[in-house]
Task: inverse folding
C-alpha cells in the first residue's frame, strides 16, 4: 500500500556545494564553521566566493569562527520549505562573527533572541549535509 502524496513528509532540500563553497560544507560536516579571510585586506567574508568583495584579491586563508553576536532576528511563522512546516515557529538570526563576517542561521531556543546576545555555532546533521545553528552562550 502506498501513502498518498499529501500524507508524506517532504524531504529537506539540501545545498549544492560548488568549487567556492565545498570547504564550508566539509567544515560543517566536521563541526567547524569555516570562512574565507582575504590574504590582502584581512577581511572575512560569507558566503564563500572566488574573490574578496572589499579589495578584489583572489588570495585567501580559511579561518574558523567559534563565536558571534546577534545583530538582528526574525521569527518565522510560515516555513520556507514544506519539510520545515512542523517546526514553525522558529527564529532566524543574523550573527556578526568574532573576527569578522556575518551569517544567518537558526537560533535555538528562539525565544532567547536579543540584539547583542553572544552565541556559538551548533551543528545539525541532515541526510547528506550539515546545518549550522546557534545557541546562546
Result:
Amino acid at each position: 500500500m502506498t501513502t498518498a502524496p499529501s500524507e508524506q513528509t517532504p524531504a529537506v532540500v539540501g545545498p549544492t556545494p560548488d568549487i567556492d563553497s565545498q570547504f564550508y560544507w566539509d567544515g560543517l560536516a566536521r563541526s567547524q564553521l569555516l570562512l574565507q579571510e582575504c590574504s590582502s585586506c584581512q577581511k572575512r567574508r560569507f558566503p564563500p566566493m572566488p574573490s574578496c568583495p572589499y579589495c578584489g584579491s583572489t588570495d585567501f586563508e580559511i579561518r574558523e569562527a567559534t563565536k558571534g553576536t546577534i545583530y538582528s532576528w526574525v521569527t518565522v511563522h510560515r516555513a520556507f520549505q514544506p519539510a520545515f512546516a512542523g517546526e514553525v515557529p522558529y527564529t532566524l538570526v543574523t550573527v556578526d562573527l568574532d573576527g569578522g563576517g556575518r551569517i544567518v542561521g537558526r537560533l535555538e531556543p528562539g525565544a532567547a533572541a536579543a540584539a547583542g546576545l553572544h552565541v556559538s555555532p551548533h551543528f545539525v546533521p541532515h541526510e547528506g549535509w550539515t546545518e549550522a545553528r546557534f545557541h546562546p552562550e
